Fold this sequence. Notes:
- This protein has 456 residues and is α+β, with helices and mostly antiparallel strands.
- The protein contains 17 helices and 17 strands.
- The protein has helices at 14-22, 58-69, 110-131, 155-167, 171-177, 190-210, 227-231, 253-262, 282-286, 300-307, 330-344, 347-357, 362-375, 386-404, 419-427, 431-440, 449-453; strands at 33-43, 72-76, 79-84, 91-94, 100-103, 133-136, 180-185, 216-217, 220-221, 240-241, 267-270, 273-276, 311-312, 314-316, 320-326, 380-381, 384-385.
- A hairpin with a 2-residue loop joins strand 11 and strand 12 (273-276).
- The longest helix has 22 residues, at 110-131.
- Catalyzes the synthesis of gamma-glutamylcysteine (gamma-GC).
- Keywords: ATP-binding, Disulfide bond, Glutathione biosynthesis, Ligase, Nucleotide-binding, Transit peptide.
- Belongs to the carboxylate-amine ligase family. Glutamate--cysteine ligase type 2 subfamily.
- It comes from Ancylobacter oerskovii.
Amino acid sequence: xxxxxxxxxxxxxxxxxxxxxxxxxxxxxxxxxxxxxxxxxxxxxxxxxxxxxxxxxxxxxxxxxxxxxxxxxxxxxxxxxxxxxxxxxxxxxxxxxxxxxxxxxxxxxxxxxxxxxxxxxxxxxxxxxxxxxxxxxxxxxxxxxxxxxxxxxxxxxxxxxxxxxxxxxxxxxxxxxxxxxxxxxxxxxxxxxxxxxxxxxxxxxxxxxxxxxxxxxxxxxxxxxxxxxxxxxxxxxxxxxxxxxxxxxxxxxxxxxxxxxxxxxxxxxxxxxxxxxxxxxxxxxxxxxxxxxxxxxxxxxxxxxxxxxxxxxxxxxxxxxxxxxxxxxxxxxxxxxxxxxxxxxxxxxxxxxxxxxxxxxxxxxxxxxxxxxxxxxxxxxxxxxxxxxxxxxxxxxxxxxxxxxxxxxxxxxxxxxxxxxxxxxxxxxxxxxxxxxxxxxxxxxxxxxxxxxxxx
Length: 456
């Protein structure tokens, strides 16, 4: 999250919360693709985490990037915590443990969003290499303990770090030691949102398997292919998970608002100050009975910021966020938006994707989600293996991209970005299994080579 929402317009009723979400509806010709990805900075000498301060720290990286691209600095007090492209809409931000995130601009094609990713990585290397550090795309930090991981100077993260251990066993791991790639996609209407949300939730475990890339913790195999995904199973279950209510009759913007109203708050921001209200009720704020702000109601900013602290497998804002994938190689950073764009932005493919999953029960969906972090392609649902299901899902996405027929300057369509997934499916193994084979083979039981061989 690059920047907290700034909109002090008061909210007087639940209907206004619903209308805020509904305002995200747009005609298909205005659909856009926003790709976000995180990566771990590490020192080239010693493969250590990179602190915020210091001549060779994260602050220096942000200042170097600002000088290079002239984006607007995002400040918290005296600390620079991100950069914003006020023209194109992209942003750079810091996750709690120094994970460096690009929040991509809303773009019209995978060609554009992949070019954006590549341009960003080129800029990052240009600034970071002289500072003595590189970047690693994995779903979880493969080497460092929580104690070794730096803490970024962001107020919302201090509040979250204090609250997380009260509600789950892996909240701090999630904050400080994981990285993801996600894509944000649009909807045309409430019915279109509901269908896409259901498809995304049901098939999100397939994406988790396809992008599973976090098999190491503190220098050793952790027993999972996507430990990042496993971590989310016990982070804070009041704000995470598969949203079974989304599959019930009557699902729509109102149902999501009612869900979000009951998710405990983390903070309220007034000016530059974060007020710690972790565990409190947004309903109390709506009723002007919140003990932190007696007599005061919420603003649009409060609502938007609260929605940004809800972490289901698919998150609804004024668009839908696909949240199931581990960070990975630069090719996989482009494959993730290609997969979901092919499913979501072609009606035939969206129907076919729903046909894959519409017969599953809530219990079957949950079991698949629970099994995939450990089993990957070997998980099963309704008599089908994940490998078989993933092959069909990618095939449906390919057909959708082909029908979209968005061409680059060389006449190529967007299907080429699915090739890393098709290669994994042809081998029948996840990215994590490739890493484990190297760990057990040429790496000789060490994770150190990952920093040399798999860095961006």
